[in-house]
Amino acid sequence: MTPHNDHPGFYGLNIxxxxxxxxxxxxxxxxxxxxxxxxPTAIEGKDIIGVAQTGTGKTIAFGIPMIxxxxxxxxxxxVLVPTRELAIQVNDAIxxxxxxxxxxxxxxxxxxxxxxxALALRKYPRIIIAxxxxxxxxxxxxxxxxxxxxxxxxxxxxRMLDMxxxxxxxxxxxxIPRARQxxxxxxxxxxxxxxxxxxxxxxxxxTEIAPPGTAAEKVTQExxxxxxxxxxxxxxxxxxxxxxxxxxxxxxxxxxxRITRAVRAMGHQAAEIHSDRSLPQRKEALEGFKSGKYRIxxxxxxxxxxxxxxxxxxxxxxxxxxxxxxxxxxxxRTGRAGHSGHAISIATPDQGHDVxxxxxLIKTAIPLAVHPSVPAEKFDHxxxxxxxxxxxxxxxxxxxxxxxxxxxxx
Length: 410
Description:
With 410 residues, the protein is of the alpha/beta class. It is built from 15 helices and 14 strands. The protein has helices at 17-25, 33-43, 58-70, 84-94, 114-122, 132-140, 157-162, 166-175, 191-200, 231-241, 253-265, 279-291, 301-304, 325-331, 352-362, and strands at residues 48-51, 76-80, 105-108, 127-130, 149-154, 181-186, 205-208, 219-225, 246-249, 270-273, 296-299, 314-317, 341-347, 368-369.
């Protein structure tokens, strides 16, 4: 598929921007059905039973969530597979993504030097990919422990049971903490697997392959009108509603710092980027946002020029821009390459003229939104519009994209 297709692709699956960049570099455009279903659920830390054949992209379906979650926490990931070949194949796929977050892997399979594997284990690789027999050999020789395994994947579980690995798997499970995430992938669902799942998993979400969805979405926009003293209350509600990465805009540097402090006090990982920050601070903020360390990045328009980050779920205009043309640049950061995205603006009652100017520029009415727990206001159009720069209303703006909207601006 071409990048300009309307399929939302890997965007909107809550994948950290750093991993989305790798996906783009590798040339993957559209997730397979199992990837589209499993990735967002697994990133949330839920247990999964994935019913899918070999060759359906399972490795990425569990590999990306595993890497993203391990980058945010201590502990390790363990992938159990039935054969050496599959172990090598899984490792090759995971190694394309793991270095993004500084994670290393080790492959423990029969037919290869135990000593070499023992040396690799000493370096504390964060992801172990193993066949059951060889993993137990290393455990019995006290070369590795499994008491720090946070995420367990049983790949091709039906094949492991067919090959008589059930006793080994049960032994391995006895070494792993119960408080973990478990993902089980299998082409079929025999009784024995249902049994493992019911004993070893917490309310697993079952994902079976279905034809991929073809919903076409682009950037949607909405504007909330609230009193300025209620902006933070609305912000808190919106931040708990959206779970992906958020790029937030402040009109001033001081405002950006104030909003960042408020967002952190609300319990979110946030960073700020503006011209009062040193270059190392700005770099750390941007890298942290790309890797998923910070879910929310608060920026001023000038600093945002250098932000080229993929996979931003939401652009949130805490303040409307001084120069309305910046509105187009801001919201364009979420719906990259025809993928879905969303933009929310928070306006105060005296900003009706600003919103009208923006609508004129983008040739689209922006729907008014209301949050049930924050009193909504109306625009006061009697207020005289302040002098604004940057709107020329000339035909040169006709290239700005049009957006879907559901309700007429009132």
